[in-house]
User: What shape does this take?
Amino acid sequence: MEVFSLRYSKEHAIKISKELFPPEKCERCGRCCIIHAYKTEKGLELIYCEHFDKEKKLCKVYNERFKYDCLTVIEGILARVFPKDCPFVRDLKNYEEPHFYKYLRD
Assistant: This one.
């Protein structure tokens, strides 16, 4: 009997993600680089990925980001990291953004 298993390959996910969601579609807003958001008495405190340059609003390791375990766009959609106006998800009817984005807009 031959046994088959389903396997997840990060390299395959990267290739498919690039094909479905070309990197040039990214508007470089940096909002998907937010890894934590805390509501404090001063407002919303945001913690960004260590590779994000807040002044330039760019990832410092963008071309090598998958070496640092960054998510592919497909993984980002499934993990719901993008704001609903992101070009990668704005046309997806069933996409729900993280709840803290409503506080960013207020």
Q: What stands out?
A: The chain has a mean pLDDT of 89. The helical segments are 10-20, 73-79, 101-105. The chain is about 20% helix and 15% strand. The first strand starts at residue 34 and ends at 40.
